[in-house]
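Input structure tokens:
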């Protein structure tokens, strides 16, 4: 059997823009992972990720919808959680025909 885990990120960002700085919310990403139910202290999962253009300023996001794949791996020694998250998001919805390939780790 598998268990399902979800994670939503809505980053608070600051970016240089022109001669000043822009501060606000970045794009929202929603990841869902399917992982083995009885995985012990090492847990892994894979699943889809969706990127929603919700940034409060164009400088803080990519202004495009995107989707892709996500993977997570965690080790839980004692009361700590140590892990890594990988995501790759693609999009071709830009008005100018450009394509996005965004890898994050």
């Amino acid at each position: 059997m598998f268990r399902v885990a979800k994670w939503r990120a809505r980053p608070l960002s600051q970016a240089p823009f022109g001669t000043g700085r822009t501060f606000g919310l970045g794009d929202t990403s929603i990841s869902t992972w399917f992982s083995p139910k009885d995985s012990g202290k090492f847990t892994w999962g894979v699943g889809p990720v969706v990127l929603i253009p919700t940034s409060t300023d164009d400088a803080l996001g990519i202004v495009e919808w995107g989707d892709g794949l996500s993977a997570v791996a965690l080790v839980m020694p004692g009361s700590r959680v140590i892990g890594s998250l990988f995501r790759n998001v693609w999009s071709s919805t830009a008005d100018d025909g450009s394509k996005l390939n965004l890898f994050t780790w």
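Residues 2-13+25-104 form one domain. The two ends are 27 Å apart (CA to CA).
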